[in-house]
Write a structure and sequence with these properties.
By secondary structure, this protein is of the alpha+beta class. It has two domains: 210 residues, Alpha-Beta Barrel (TIM Barrel), CATH 3.20.20; 79 residues, Sandwich (Immunoglobulin-like). The protein starts with a strand and ends with a strand. The protein contains five helices and 18 strands. 43% of the residues are buried. The protein has a 15-stranded mixed β-sheet that branches. A three-stranded antiparallel β-sheet has the order 11-12-15, with no helix packed on it. 15% of the residues lie in helices and 33% in strands. It binds zinc ion (2 copies). The site of one zinc ion (ZN) has 4 residues, from loops.
Length: 295
Amino acid sequence: MKIWNPYEITGKWLRGSFHNHTTNSDGWFPLETVYKMYGGYDFLGISDHDKITKHEGEREIPTVFEAIEVSSRQTHMLLVNPPHSIMENYSSEFTIENYQRFVDLTAANGGFAVLVHPNRYFSNFWKLDDMFKMENFLGVEVYNGDGNPEYDIAFDKWDALLSAGRKVWGFGNDDSHVYGQEKRAWNMVMAMENTNEAIVDAIVKGNFYVSTGYGFDAIQVEDDTVVVDLRSNELLDKMYKYVTFFGKDGRVLQETTGRIKQAKYECKGDEGYVRIAVYLEGGYSAFSQPLFVEK
Ligand SMILES: [Zn+2]
Ligand SMILES: [Zn+2]
């Protein structure tokens, strides 16, 4: 059995979000305010609708990313580190061909594409068929912090892609527009250093997880066993945890609960992939990337 663990390389955990708006599109706050709202973050992407917002002015956030949210009436797609050349004769029209072109140009520019809020059925969402028609994108926004639990969670579509053998990562972002939407969901990236290149390198390899307040210290593989070290300290260790291991088709492989610091799952070989969700009592959560299992 071979288990592909994206968390093998260790570095330092960095916190950040790639999908946030300013007054340059329909956000309420100018860039300088958004920087302040995200004080304490290690990195931040600004992704206005159909515009690449230039990073300028004073900020404390060490690393920032240029991004754009390609925003047709039907679907939205996040491009992190897109080439500025995409703005020539730019159209957000949703065709697979047009969106695929953006994905490929961004990947060639050292960036990546994420299909965002795929379940936002009341406005802009992704049909699963269309997601399957797209190639070369890096991930799916499985947790969008906009604030509608019915529409902003998309583990079902992620599991559908993963179960069909697509290797795509799960992202968490605020998609912040208005006051109160900041710091709800983010990505914890295990990078060698806090630079754009090191963060993208780690993200492309899947060495990150989604958090809404809780986390993992490490995820390791020992023989055929996935060993999950939950974020631990004297205070957290007193609290109750709910750990779920999911496999292909979203099947629940194992649930482990208690005032624990670690959870283990021994792979049988038929899982397809194993991904881990953990909730701390009170609701703070973290969601790992899949570890692909080959028989
Ligand atoms: Zn959107
Ligand atoms: Zn957005």
